């Protein structure tokens, strides 16, 4: 089962994903795509680490597709936004969706929903928003379940045909 958890900054999406992952068959591997490049990001990463159960293993990677293909068991991927930001050209949503679909284990995938925010004022900001939107759509198409988290509240999103 693939679950995509979308939300804006500080919406509570990671906490929702962590609760979902706790209910998955154990053990869970937490796949982190972000690195602490500045004090704010380092603090966010530290807070995420403190919330995770000690028995979960952690893999930090920018090669997300390879990690999803290689890792066994249940996964929690946090987050697609940092993966896309690391290399917008290399972030391949179709390849990621295929790797997630080919797995035998469950996966919870976290991503930012940037299409609801302020319009980016720069070309790179617009490219990031558009690229992440494309990646989110590809993963959502492969997902069994898509959740939107707003202000800590969760809404399940159905498919167009539902």
What features would you describe in this structure?
This protein is of the alpha/beta class and 162 residues long. The two termini are 18 Å apart. It has 6 helices and 7 strands; from the N terminus they run βαβαβαβααβαββ. The model has no long low-confidence stretch (mean pLDDT 92). The longest helix is centred in the C-terminal third of the chain and has 20 residues, at 123-142. Strands 3-2-4-5-1-6-7 form a 7-stranded mixed sheet, sandwiched between helices. The protein is globular, with a radius of gyration of 15 Å. The protein has a single domain (2-157), classed as P-loop containing nucleotide triphosphate hydrolases (Rossmann fold, 3-Layer(aba) Sandwich). The chain is 41% helix and 23% strand.
Helicity, as a percent range: 40-55%
- CATH topology, by name, is Rossmann fold
What is the CATH architecture term? Answer: 3-Layer(aba) Sandwich
Q: Strand content of the residues, in percent?
A: 15-25%
Short overview:
With 162 residues, the chain is of the alpha/beta class. It has six helices and seven strands, in the order βαβαβαβααβαββ.
């Amino acid at each position: 089962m693939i679950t995509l958890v979308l939300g804006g900054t500080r919406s509570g999406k990671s906490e929702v994903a962590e609760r979902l992952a706790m209910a998955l068959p154990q053990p869970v591997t937490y796949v982190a795509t972000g690195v602490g490049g500045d004090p704010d990001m380092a603090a966010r990463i530290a807070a995420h680490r403190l919330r995770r159960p000690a028995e979960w293993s952690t893999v930090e990677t920018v090669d997300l597709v390879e990690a999803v293909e290689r890792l066994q068991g249940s996964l929690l991927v946090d987050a697609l936004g940092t993966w896309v930001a690391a290399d917008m050209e290399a972030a391949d949503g179709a390849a990621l969706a295929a790797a997630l679909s080919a797995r035998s284990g469950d996966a919870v995938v976290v991503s930012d929903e940037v299409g609801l925010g302020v319009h980016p004022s720069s070309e790179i900001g617009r490219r990031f928003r558009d690229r992440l939107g494309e990646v989110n759509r590809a993963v959502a198409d492969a997902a069994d379940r898509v959740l939107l988290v707003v202000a800590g509240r969760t809404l399940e999103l159905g498919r167009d045909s539902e």
